[in-house]
Design brief:
- One of its GO terms (molecular function) is ATP binding.
- It catalyses: tRNA(Gly) + glycine + ATP = glycyl-tRNA(Gly) + AMP + diphosphate.
- One of its GO terms (biological process) is glycyl-tRNA aminoacylation.
- It is found in: Cytoplasm.
- This protein is α+β, with helices and mostly antiparallel strands and 487 residues long.
- The chain has three domains: 241 residues, Bira Bifunctional Protein, Domain 2 (BirA Bifunctional Protein, domain 2), CATH 3.30.930; 76 residues, Herpes Virus-1; 106 residues, Anticodon-binding domain (Rossmann fold).
- The protein has 17 helices and 23 strands.
- Strands 3-9-10-16-13-12-11 form a seven-stranded mixed beta sheet. Strands 20-19-21-22-23 form a five-stranded mixed beta sheet, sandwiched between helices. Strands 5-4-6 form a three-stranded antiparallel beta sheet.
- Helix 6 packs antiparallel against helix 7.
Length: 487
């Protein structure tokens, strides 16, 4: 990470806390590693991202429906899915610091340093060697790479490493009144299995015909050892997933369709195209016959935001085998029964949140001559902005607050509106810029005479005089979901 990028990322993290977007969980008790809370503005932004995904996935597709499955599931679910026996990460411990790390992430950090220092050939060689070791599940080779490239522990600075071992990432707990008699169950490490075990319920009750999809937004839990890059990698996180069930043999056609459709969803927000790229998996999961990541260029490099996977019929076949229930589809077009194949789209909501913050954050120098001035603005798409408009009476007297409240009461029926009367109008503008509010509406003495207000636009800072009766239309046009869903 370059100095400028490092500084940008630190500033975004600081901004997120200062303006009520993200807080460290249990901060008054010195926090909990790799766990975060979303503040008042963060919760609004997060909900708006969810709404955009849900509308584009469920509302805009006649053959996709949504569910909300429970976090707790029958423990055999995770045997069938392979998580009990195979949901592991290669971990290595430093004997001096007593810290545990993911071996592949230590190597990835070294690759990034090689690239930063201009040693591109060395970086490419190490990347290839790591990919081969991961594909072969060769833990000894991973450790050899760490030793060969003199990778040190970030805490102790030493190279006193243990062997690389596999570490299961699932959280387990007990369900039952008495611990000795309790059954071991797991906090779900992904939301996909809740969809698969409900395939029959949804298909029958919804009278769904293949191809069709089931979408879900929900929490998942992974015992990540290392807190990395703010909310990029957390122990408790949220996923937005859709499993699309197709006829065997047609999966690659649908795989390509969803690759392009999902990238289009991202770009509709106005993100520069060069900030995104596809990254094909070199090591496929045992259930997949194709997999690609949509990566975004964060300040710390290109990282996965969303995955598109062709999962074959593995999941439904496994649940059919372990449950003893027939999970098949009768296809009247070909007069055949079969276990459907699945194309998965899975996006990390927290990563999308961070992407959105970073992409919107801008520090502007507004100085003119000897007059120094600056602002921090979040150029959020109006649909995603936590607050759509701020109502600002010019003074706290002369009937201006009452008039401002009248306007707020009218607008808040359709939009999230904020009322603010403290500090100078300039300071109030800056506060709203910092949380990404598209419009500031100033109520002054003229407003009492002719029912007009001054509306200020966040991105241009231009102001215009408009009739109060026009505010519904002006704000509604800018924050309408049609602006995103119609693209």
């Amino acid at each position: 990470m370059s100095k400028n990028n490092d500084e940008l990322f630190k500033n975004v993290i600081s901004h997120a806390k200062e303006y009520g977007f993200v807080f460290q969980s249990s901060e008054i008790y010195d926090g909990l590693s790799a766990v975060y809370d979303y503040g008042q503005n963060g919760a609004e932004l997060k909900n708006n991202i969810k709404t955009y995904w849900w509308k584009s996935m469920v509302q805009m597709h006649e053959n996709i429906v949504g569910i909300d499955a429970a976090i707790f599931m029958h423990p055999t679910t995770w045997k069938a899915s392979g998580h009990v026996d195979g949901f592991n990460d290669p971990m290595i411990d430093n004997k001096d610091s007593k810290k545990r790390y993911r071996a592949d992430q230590l190597i990835e950090d070294k690759i990034a340093r090689y690239e930063k220092d201009g040693k591109t050939e060395k970086a490419a060689q190490l990347q290839t060697a790591m990919d081969e070791a991961l594909k072969a599940d060769n833990l000894t080779a991973l450790r050899d790479l760490i030793v060969e490239h003199e990778i040190v522990c970030p805490v102790s600075g030493t190279r006193n490493w243990t062997d690389v071992r596999q570490f299961n990432l699932m959280f387990s707990t007990q369900m039952g009144a008495v611990a000795d008699d309790a059954d071991v169950i797991y906090l779900r490490p992904e939301t996909a299995q809740g969809i698969f075990v409900n395939y029959l319920n949804v298909q029958k009750t919804g009278r769904m015909k293949i191809p069709f999809g089931i979408a879900q937004i929900g929490k998942a839990f992974r015992n990540e050892v290392i807190a990395r890059q703010f909310i990029m990698r957390m122990r408790e996180f949220e996923q937005m997933e859709m499993q699309f069930f197709v006829r065997p043999g047609s999966e690659m056609e649908w795989y390509d369709y969803w690759k392009q459709t999902r990238l289009k969803w991202h770009k509709a927000l106005g993100t520069a195209s060069e900030k995104y790229r596809f990254h094909d998996h070199t090591k496929l999961a045992h259930y997949a016959n194709a997999a690609v990541d949509i990566e975004f260029q964060f300040p710390f490099g290109f990282k996965e935001v969303e995955g598109i996977h062709s999962r074959t019929d593995f999941d439904l076949s496994q649940h059919q085998k372990f449950s003893g229930k027939k999970i098949q589809y009768f296809d009247p077009e070909i007069n055949q029964n079969y276990v459907p194949y699945v194309i998965e789209t899975s996006i990390g909501l927290d990563r999308m949140f961070l992407l959105t913050l970073i992409n919107a954050y801008e520090e502007q120098d507004l100085s003119e001559g000897d007059k120094k001035d600056s602002r921090v603005v979040l150029r959020l798409h109006p649909c995603l902005a936590p607050v759509k408009a701020a109502i600002l009476p010019l003074t706290k007297k002369d009937g201006l607050p009452e008039k401002a409240r009248e306007i707020m009461d009218r607008l808040k029926l359709d939009h999230n509106i904020i009322y603010e009367e403290k500090d100078s109008i300039g300071k109030r503008y800056r506060r709203q810029d910092a949380i990404g509010t598209p419009f500031c509406i100033t109520v002054d003495h003229q407003s009492l005479q002719d029912n007009t207000v001054t509306i200020r636009h966040r991105d241009t800072m231009e102001q215009e005089r408009v009739e109060i009766a026009q505010l519904d239309r002006i704000i509604g046009d800018r924050v309408s979901w049609k602006n995103l869903l119609g693209k």
